[in-house]
Design a protein that fits this description.
The chain has 15 helices and 15 strands. By secondary structure, it is an alpha/beta fold. Bound molecules: pyridoxal-5'-phosphate and iron/sulfur cluster. The site of pyridoxal-5'-phosphate has 10 residues, from strand 5, strand 6 and strand 14.
Length: 433
């Protein structure tokens, strides 16, 4: 299949939109002025059920919905469009709205490492073992998820893009930091890069002789959005060759695949692509956020994890939707998130219970809701760090007062009358540095 992309500029060419109501088409027009919108011919022709598009998880995953904007934001843009205002006027209104949507959650600006006296662009080092690398050529995707928190990378100017061309600096940094065992190449979607670009990065890392660097991870949504990347793209074989190079060098290649719904695991193309990737010796681990309107039912998760295991993949993370962008539309309360996780987790066999969650990627770390319980008559959330800015925080249970309406860490207060969570003083100190 030849990749055909649809953006706000040309999506009206999609033949299937004849099944979409006038009102929904208008909603796409309005919302896509503010939030990123991009889809492609695989998603349109193989994933979306157009006869039932209004409730279709794949449609909601890719096509802007009215509820993704606050009513006042929606009306503001709608009025400008109806008044036939100049595009530049609409654009500046959109930019103002975007700024209100918390484009940089979880204090990402604090994780930028320093090498040779300079801040490294395109790199984050938050957790001891793992360096995040955002190659500048991989900061877009084959289609955009409507819930995505990385949207500032797609819609704003270069200045806040995490872009990095110099792998040499990264290698130097990893050499100095023997605690780093993993590099996680991420985006956007690094698999939008040409094989030759990925090869440049990978070969440099392998040739650098870094014995402590054991795992090369690639975070990608290509298996759901464009499995033909590994089947029919002109450099499909070459990409698989780069993967093989990693495993042949004795490093482990962890392909961190992003799937949101079992539908994404059903096409012939995805099944073939998974097989091709596994044949290179790569391990595929899977992750997804929990999203209202898309996958907020335990049965969906249980089905998804079982299918993943059947296809040879390892369920890895369930995330809680972040406090950015269209969180109000997609957000699930912490209480419900835990309930959905527990029901799904307890209904699959041990081989699928490799999954961890539901987890919030917040400023102090990845915090899991381990449960809801009663301690001496006080109803509490039991929480636990899966990853922490300080490794010493990991695996210690702590408690927050139960709150039915909590959607994120910010909504929680310490239980048992405590003034603060155990990590807060140290966190404040770490963030000063
Ligand atoms: C999730 C994450 C990682 C990887 O964490 P693992 O639990 O090892 O998968 C690394 N860095 C950041 C900033 C992350 O958010
Ligand atoms: S594939 Fe990942 S980075 Fe790209 S839009 Fe979806 S969630 Fe965001």
């Amino acid at each position: 299949m030849i990749y055909q992309t649809y953006t706000p500029r040309n999506y009206m060419q999609i033949a299937q939109l004849s099944k979409v109501s006038k009102e929904d088409l208008h909603n796409i027009d309005v919302v896509s002025r503010v939030l990123p919108f991009k889809t492609n011919n695989y998603v349109v022709s193989e994933l979306i059920d157009w006869d039932n598009y209004q409730n279709d998880p794949m449609y909601i995953l890719n096509f802007p919905q009215k509820g993704m904007l606050k009513p006042e934001h929606f009306t503001r843009i709608e009025k400008l469009i109806l008044n036939e205002e100049d595009p530049s006027v609409i654009k500046s209104a959109s930019e103002e709205i975007r700024k209100e949507l918390n484009p940089h959650p979880a204090g990402q600006a604090h994780n930028i490492p320093v090498y040779m006296g300079e801040m490294m662009q395109g790199v984050q080092h938050k957790y001891n073992e793992t360096l995040l690398f955002f190659p500048s050529q991989g900061q877009t995707c084959h289609a955009y998820c409507t819930f995505c928190f990385r949207w500032p990378q797609f819609v704003t100017t270069d200045s806040i893009k995490f872009a990095m061309k110099e792998i040499e600096n990264i290698i130097g940094y990893i050499r100095e930091h023997e605690e780093i065992t993993d590099i996680l190449i991420t985006g956007g979607d690094p698999m939008v890069m040409k094989a030759s670009v990925l090869d440049t990065y990978v070969s440099a890392l392998l040739e650098a002789d870094l014995p402590h660097l054991q795992n090369i991870r690639i975070g990608s949504k290509t298996l759901s959005f464009w499995p033909y990347r590994y089947l029919t793209d002109p450099d499909a074989e070459e990409i698989l060759g780069v993967f093989r190079k990693i495993t042949d060098a004795g490093k482990s290649l962890c392909f961190m695949a992003h799937f949101n719904h079992p539908r994404e695991l059903e096409t012939e193309a995805v099944i073939k692509a998974i097989k091709k990737i596994r044949e290179t010796g790569a391990q595929i681990r899977t992750q997804s956020p929990l999203l209202k309107h898309i996958n907020a039912k335990s049965g969906i998760w249980a089905t998804m994890w079982k299918k993943q295991v059947q296809l040879g993949m390892i369920p890895y993370y369930m995330f809680i939707a972040r406090d950015t962008g269209a969180q109000e539309y997609f957000g699930v309360s912490l209480d419900r998130a835990w309930d959905i996780f527990r029901r799904a987790y307890s209904s699959v066999s041990g081989v699928a219970r490799t999954v961890r969650g539901p987890s919030m990627s917040s400023s102090p770390g990845k915090i899991r809701i381990a449960g809801v319980t009663d301690v001496n008559g006080e109803k509490v959330f039991v929480l636990e760090f899966i990853q922490g800015r300080n490794n010493d925080w990991v695996g210690r249970p702590f408690f927050a007062r139960f709150n039915k309406n909590a959607y994120w860490l910010d909504d929680l207060e310490p239980a048992f009358g405590a003034d603060s969570f155990f990590y807060e003083d140290e966190l404040a100190e770490l963030l000063l540095n």
